[in-house]
Design a protein that fits this description.
single chain; alpha/beta; 5-stranded mixed sheet; 4-stranded parallel sheet; elongated
């Protein structure tokens, strides 16, 4: 049963995410420019790498000319980039998000007015007037739409953009520029106050939970990057760049799962840790927190430890680290901050690991919840129903054919790229080479995809962008059982011509050779492997399932199948049947029919229903035991493949 959240709570969360995404969307496409500025700053400023390592360049050198110091004080590339280029790029992107190329032009013009009227780098001002410029020209165009005489369109369009941009530039010069200057100074004073009073670590209490709710890009690139860049322009570095980007808390959490976790979480944590730490995709650890919400205490405390160490050592970065990889962090670390930054990452990792380890070891809930259970837990905790819970139902019928799939996330660069890669591999292995799988930012989605895959927390926003598509949610980017369900959906949408048979003739054995339960599982598992339905690892998972819960069903039937953690080893749904002339012992029960199951989606459920009905009928069981051919077995089971097709 699903939980229906209060509409006001859902609407507020979606609204906050949209605002945050819009702010970060102005910065994210321009991260390359920020990195270029950071590298130029690191190389050419007066105390940069070149002068520190060589000591050979004076105040009249070409290094000073580029860096803007010595005889060239106030000039150079570094100062020009942070004063003009970066704010204009942000303002133009803000206008483009509102009204395309025309919005970008007017937004850039308006941003120049704010820059000229301010005494600090105008990142926040650009994030205000850029979208405002796009909105103004969009409204103006709507006023005289379809009212311009033929031949005068270019004249009106160009002059309207120029006039609107000029008016906004003047307004920004006298109004917004000085206002934002005051705000920036106030924000900088607040940061200084937090640092002086040792309160900056407590920002993790707000930042870490907000990250897990998919506001990480909004926080980092929408708030901390503008403030940090202003600070770095004055001091050469800023600790604000590390408040959200420190990979230590996520690494510590994933290491704890790798050592003390269970099931799918333990199996996938090691690979996730590598992607998080080296690849910089922080979103990968969010589902681990969502499955056990009390682990938020571990990442908050780890984040506080990392910030405290940076404050104590006075360390910081010259520019934002994007993505949040340790490689990007070191690339932007100030020359005097390598020790502090290294210790902050190690400290955050160790503290998070220790606390998470204690929480996992003292968990009284028993076995690690599988990902389906985690989805239900998250729905109840967050008060929002996930489409993943209805994937097996009929509320979202699959299109006639699925040919385009998009994996969407907040920025379209991190978790969506990783999820798309995993899903693409699964789909190719299932034989659907013509199905396109791409990754996109939610803000850039168009309503031209057959299937949209998002994290459960982002599903509502994705639905508004692609209302005609089928929507599926996941909670684990690396090892989601939902990927197998998507493969099953593709099989059903393609029809019986391309979908693999659930029960192939070669997957029926009339006289099994096994003499015990373990051998029988190996025998039926080998049939599933031979059919190309599963990887060899799935057979081991069938044994693991049997050790946990017996799959003996009664009336001489056992249905061994893998654990939920082994869903990623299933290539397509299939069933194998082995009959034994002499009943074998199944943990104290007599079994003469073993049906091995590999369920990627729900297309095997109708078959299982039919099998249950057959084995509940003594006459049908006698018919199966006396069958002389594989075809008779299939017929006794009710023409399995046809039955599954009809059930759809």
């Amino acid at each position: 049963m699903s939980v229906s959240p209060p509409e006001s709570r859902t609407a507020l969360r979606v609204h906050v995410q949209r605002v945050g995404t819009f702010l970060s969307s102005m910065v994210m496409p321009n991260i390359g420019a920020f990195i270029a500025w950071g590298l130029l700053t690191a190389l050419f400023i007066e105390k940069g790498w070149i002068t520190s390592l060589t000591g050979a360049w004076g105040e009249d050198s070409w290094v000073a000319r580029i860096g803007g110091w010595g005889d060239y004080d106030g000039g150079g590339i570094v100062s020009a980039m942070i004063t003009y280029l970066l704010p204009v790029l942000i303002g133009a992107q803000g206008g483009r998000l509102i009204y395309g190329a025309r919005g970008a032009v007017v937004g850039a013009i308006a941003t120049m007015g704010v820059i000229a009227g301010a005494q600090v780098p105008m990142f926040l001002g650009a994030m205000i007037v850029g979208p405002l410029g796009g909105w103004v020209i969009k409204r103006l165009d709507a006023v005289w739409e379809n009212k311009i005489r033929p031949g005068f369109e270019m004249l009106v369009n160009n002059f309207s953009a120029g006039i609107a941009g000029a008016v906004l530039a003047v307004s920004g010069f006298f109004g917004i520029g000085p206002l934002v200057t005051g705000f920036s100074r106030a924000a900088s004073n607040i940061v200084d106050l937090l640092v002086e009073n040792n309160l900056l670590p407590f920002t993790s209490v707000f930042i870490e939970p907000a990250k897990v709710l998919f506001l990480n890009n909004a926080i980092n690139h929408g708030i901390l990057t503008p403030l940090g860049t202003n600070q770095a322009s004055e001091t050469g570095k800023s600790v604000l760049f590390l408040l959200e980007a420190n990979p230590g808390p996520g690494l510590g959490l994933l290491m704890a799962f790798a050592v003390f976790g269970r099931g799918a979480a333990k199996a996938s944590a090691s690979g996730a840790a590598v992607i998080h730490f080296l690849g910089g995709i922080h979103e990968i650890y969010f589902p681990y927190v969502l499955t056990k919400p009390r682990l938020i205490v571990a990442v908050i405390t780890g984040g506080m430890a990392g910030v405290l160490i940076n404050v104590v050592f006075g360390s910081g970065l010259r520019a934002p680290a994007a993505p949040g990889s340790i490689l990007a962090v070191y690339a932007q670390t100030a020359g005097d901050s390598y020790l502090g930054v290294t210790l902050s990452v190690l400290g955050a990792t160790i503290v998070t690991f220790l606390i998470a380890a204690v929480l996992l070891r003292t968990d009284r809930t028993g076995a690690e919840p599988d990902l389906a259970d985690a989805t239900a837990t998250m729905e109840a905790m967050k008060g929002k129903r996930s489409i993943a819970s209805t994937l097996l139902g009929a509320n979202d019928p699959a299109p006639a054919r699925i040919s385009t799939i998009v994996f969407a996330c907040d920025a379209g660069m991190g978790s969506s790229a990783m999820g798309a890669s995993v899903l693409r591999k699964r789909i190719r292995e299932a034989g659907f080479a013509d199905v396109s799988v791409v990754n996109r930012a939610i803000a850039s989605l168009g309503d031209d995809y057959d299937l949209v895959v998002t994290h459960a927390d982002l599903a509502e926003r994705a639905r508004t962008r692609t209302p005609s598509a089928l929507h599926v949610s996941v909670t684990d980017f690396m090892n989601s059982p939902t990927y197998g369900e998507i493969v099953g959906m593709l099989s059903r949408a393609e029809g019986s011509e391309t979908a693999p048979d659930l029960l192939a003739s070669d997957s029926i054995v009339l006289a099994g050779l096994a003499r015990g339960r373990a051998e029988a599982i190996d025998e039926v598992g080998a049939l599933l492997v031979a059919a190309g339905a599963v990887e060899q690892d799935y057979v081991a998972a069938m044994h693991e399932r049997e050790r946990t819960v017996s799959t003996f069903m009664g009336n001489g039937l056992a249905i061994p199948h893998g654990t939920n953690a082994a869903k990623n080893a299933i290539r397509h749904s299939a069933i194998a049947v082995v009959r034994y002339q002499e009943a074998i012992d199944w943990n104290g029960n007599r079994v003469d029919f073993v049906v091995g199951i590999a369920g990627a989606g729900d297309d095997h459920l109708a078959v299982l229903s039919r099998i249950a009905t057959v084995f509940a009928d003594a006459e049908q069981v006698r018919r199966l035991r006396s069958a002389a051919t594989r075809e008779e077995i299939a017929a006794a089971l009710g023409d399995v493949q046809a039955h599954a097709d009809i059930a759809e």
